[in-house]
Design goal:
Strand order of the largest sheet: 1-2-3
């Protein structure tokens, strides 16, 4: 809900956070020996410049992390510790990500878009998941935390492989969605032309994160995992279809409200949908309970009934 509220607010509300993000990333580039120039939200490295907008900040990833920590049944003291450490770590991780992307855009311009999608969407979400699991690892309950490292390694490996595959499929996938929309509009005697102006459509890469999460997790059977992939994939397809439909109404029919709706769909789809579907499927596979971690073996880690502080 908070992510949707953020999407409705004007960009200037988050300008101080964006400026701080740009300043920190620029400082990291300077420390590395690069001649970076920061002006407001703009980072310049040679002839290459990036503009830090709200989506580039930790606002959305941090909101997910904060929501997780607040909702988890632990004492206020442990929650405050988790919030301070986790949000600080995510901010540093994000500043490093932007610094690295800026340097890559300067040194290797053709690869910037792909790196921006992977580092911007997938790795930041992996960072949020890692922060949540690490916080659980230091929380005062009995559990076996060795599965965390194995889970994150599997997640990183699957996401890298699937990202490479989806990089070649995302454009045909968007073409198919546009074809469905064009066909639907013929029922109302409209002949639409929807151009494909981008090589990479980052809104579709939540599929990569969702699939990587499912493949990295332990399910009671591969049949359940496959059913989850089908159900989750269908849900994401509908979300992507609605997003492209908003673009049609916005650009083809000048519907002003379509922009706000498309932004909400993109934000929720990028941050909430893959994580929410993953947790929902895990909960269904574990009879309504969520396991702490997923060990390297196939044995299930069952939450013990120890008291929280």
């Amino acid at each position: 809900m908070l992510l949707i509220v953020y999407s409705c607010l004007p960009e200037k509300v988050f300008l101080p956070l964006n400026k701080l993000t740009a300043l920190t990333a620029g400082g990291l580039l300077t420390l590395s020996g690069e001649q970076a120039v920061v002006s407001g939200t703009i980072i310049s490295l040679g002839s290459f410049t990036v503009n830090i907008i709200t989506e580039c900040s930790i606002l959305f990833p941090a909101t997910l992390y904060v929501s997780f920590v607040i909702a988890y049944p632990l004492s206020v003291r442990h929650k405050i510790t988790g919030l301070l450490l986790g949000v600080s770590a995510l901010f540093c991780c994000n500043a490093f990500r932007i610094a690295l992307l800026t340097w890559c855009g300067f040194a290797y311009p053709p690869y910037f878009e792909y790196l921006h999608v992977y580092f911007g969407q997938i790795l930041m979400m992996l960072a949020v998941i890692a922060a949540c699991l690490l916080w659980l690892g230091i929380a005062p309950h009995e559990q076996e935390g060795s599965g965390l490292v194995h889970f994150m390694l599997r997640l990183l490996l699957y996401s890298a492989v699937l990202f490479g595959i989806w990089s070649g499929l995302n454009r045909p996938y968007v073409t198919f969605i546009d074809g469905v929309i064009q066909y639907a509009f013929t029922w109302f005697n409209y002949q639409l032309f929807i151009p494909l102006e981008h090589t990479v459509y980052y809104q579709t890469f939540n599929i990569v994160l969702f699939c990587a999460l499912l493949f990295s997790s332990r399910f009671k059977s591969n049949r359940r995992r496959f059913a989850g992939l089908v159900a989750g994939g269908a849900t994401m397809f509908v979300a992507h279809l609605l997003f492209r439909l908003c673009n049609v109404f916005m650009t083809g029919f000048d519907v002003a409200d379509a922009y706000s709706l498309s932004l909400m769909l993109a934000t929720a789809g990028q941050y909430v949908l893959p994580i929410g579907l993953w947790l929902l499927l895990l909960s269904a596979d574990n009879n309504g309970a969520l396991p702490y971690f997923f060990s390297v073996s196939d044995k299930r880690l069952i939450r013990k009934g120890s008291k929280h502080e």
